[in-house]
Design a protein that fits this description.
The chain has two domains: 158 residues, Ferritin (Up-down Bundle); 155 residues, no CATH class. It is elongated and about 75 Å long. The chain has twelve helices and no strands. 72% of the residues lie in helices and 0% in strands.
């Protein structure tokens, strides 16, 4: 919840000067070019034709970088401020390229399409914040160039990749659904399910009172839901990150956080203590495996890793709650 007030130490995009906006654009183009080069290297052996596509895309990003440096030098001189996307609140993030090495070709292509869409949003917002005519024109031109990268990629594909290699599919709607609903909802479900285990089961074994345990679980779940919802909504406005409406993300995170806690709190409406506890434990088991499944399906987390992180970690929290309650 403190992130709501601290902003994770990042600067608001609105506070950047025109020199810093250009510096940010330069560093972003440099990073994107390196990412495309790493994609090309990853695909060199298993998909050489597609690797050529990404090498050409890297050359396009380098050309954009050179245009931005020329404009910066013309207006502000030789000293370019060191500012990167991770320094700016709400700025779109890039997955580390080493996480892409074992992913499918389709997933890498989808990530590249997302990068281009995010860059378009950045240049569109940046153009609104500059007053110099030449700089504004350059940023607007780059926004149009990024918007047209889908067509560029299509032409590069026709140039380098035969039809039997390329599989055309539009995953924009699915990716947006994941960014707006699945990611914040999954974070909320994990927080609500795991963080409330210890207090609920500690209260259950300490009091042996199902009604009091339910009230504790209800308050913990609702409180966590409100906190997570506000934190997610305030994290960024979605304009630069492309994660969608902060209201939708906040609702997804808040509701799923509350649901995660209420899942094992509701069984304590059953008057008999051991019956309620056994049902709650079964619900916890289902919740943890559901989280591992969602991580594997939507977030591309290896299933065994997801099981270890969620199921094993949640079991430890559960055991801690029971031990504390019996202490």
């Amino acid at each position: 919840m403190l992130d709501l007030f601290r902003g994770n130490g990042r600067r608001p995009f609105e506070s950047l000067s025109e020199a810093e906006i250009l510096a940010l654009a330069i560093s972003s183009e440099e990073e994107d070019a390196r990412i495309y080069q790493s994609y090309a290297a990853s695909l060199a052996d298993r998909a050489p034709d597609s690797a050529k596509v990404f090498r050409d895309m890297a050359e396009v990003e380098q050309a954009h970088r050179n245009m931005l440096i020329s404009q910066f030098r013309l207006r502000f001189g030789e000293e370019i401020p060191l500012i990167r996307r991770e320094h700016v609140r709400g700025f779109y993030q890039r997955r580390p390229d080493w996480l892409m090495t074992n992913l499918s070709l389709e997933t890498i292509r989808a990530q590249a399409e997302l990068m281009e869409a995010q860059a378009f949003r950045f240049y569109t917002e940046a153009a609104k914040r500059v007053t110099d005519a030449a700089t504004r024109q350059l940023l607007g031109d780059l926004a149009l160039a990024e918007q047209g990268h889908g067509e560029i990629a299509h032409r590069l594909g026709e140039k380098h990749a035969p039809d039997e290699v390329r599989e055309e599919e539009n995953q924009t709607e699915r990716r947006q659904f994941i960014l707006t609903y699945v990611q914040p909802g999954l974070a909320g479900l994990m927080d609500g399910s795991v963080s409330t285990l210890a207090p609920i089961f500690a209260a259950a074994f300490a009091t042996q009172d199902t009604w009091q345990t339910f009230l504790i679980g209800l308050s913990a779940s609702v409180g966590a839901g409100i906190s997570m919802g506000f934190t997610e909504a305030a994290h960024d406005d979605g304009k630069l990150s492309g994660r969608g409406s902060p209201l939708k993300r906040g609702l997804a995170s808040g509701i799923m956080t509350a649901v995660g806690g209420l899942g094992h709190a509701l069984p304590y409406l059953i008057p008999h203590f051991w019956t309620a506890t056994i049902v709650a434990a079964i619900v916890v088991f289902i919740e943890l495996w559901a989280i591992a499944f969602i991580q594997n399906k939507y977030m591309e987390t290896p299933f065994l890793r997801a099981v270890f992180q969620v199921v094993f970690g949640g079991s430890l929290v559960l055991a801690a709650g029971i031990l504390i309650g019996n202490g």
